[in-house]
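[RESIDUES AND BACKBONE]
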Amino acid sequence: MGGTSIRDIREEAAEEADVKRRTGQASREDAVRVPSADETAESVRRAQRALQELKQRQAADSRRAEDDARDEASRRNADLSQHLNGHELLVDSTFG
């Protein structure tokens, strides 16, 4: 390491792992467990279900946002119509 006396932590970890392997002191967390086919299939089913639920929620949120936007546009249109009708009455009574 470029002239420093500090050891790289990766080197230390590798040496510790080698010592554990040679002396048979590897801990349970160092061991790799491969899930069974049934466990893997169940995990995939849960993930697919979660994705399906997420898509359904997103679609419902999208529909709700579209409905809200349509309602807001209708309210604004109604307010504008009322406002314009008020001005037409004022113009008619002034010039009529």
User: Anything to note?
Assistant: The mean pLDDT is 82. Residues 36-96 form one domain.
